[in-house]
Amino acid sequence: LMQFQADVLDVDVQRPQMVETTALGAAGLAGLGAGLWSDAYEFLEARPKPTRFKPKMREARREESIKGWQRAIAATRAWSKAGQQ
């Protein structure tokens, strides 16, 4: 999914190694309180580097994917409106 987003958006996408960011934040605050890190910047530097996804999709394929997404949205909207009548 991250690679697909990078491809369709044509931008780098980063995903943290530790996906449980709420728990990581609590652990970071506890570590700061206990003196494990001197400040928040030191804590942030101690984290593993994120996984980076770089766009790889060719422009023609990207445009085709975006057009398909737009068709799917249009169909969903039409289906939704039909159900409201």
Please state roughly what percent of the residues sit in beta strands, choosing from under 5%, 5-15%, 15-25%, 25-35%, 35-45% or over 45%. Answer: 5-15%
**How many strand segments?**
2
Strand order of the largest sheet: 1-2
Name the structural class. Answer: mainly alpha
Radius of gyration: 21 Å
Order of helical and strand elements: HEHHEH
Q: What's the main sheet like? A: 2 strands, antiparallel
Mean pLDDT: 92
Low-confidence stretches: none
**Straight-line distance between termini:** 35 Å
Q: What is the global morphology? A: elongated
Give the helix level as a range of percent: 55-70%
Q: Helical stretch count?
A: 4
Topology (elements, then pairings):
Blueprint: H1 2-9, E1 13-15, H2 21-33, H3 40-46, E2 51-53, H4 59-84
Antiparallel strand pairs: 1-2
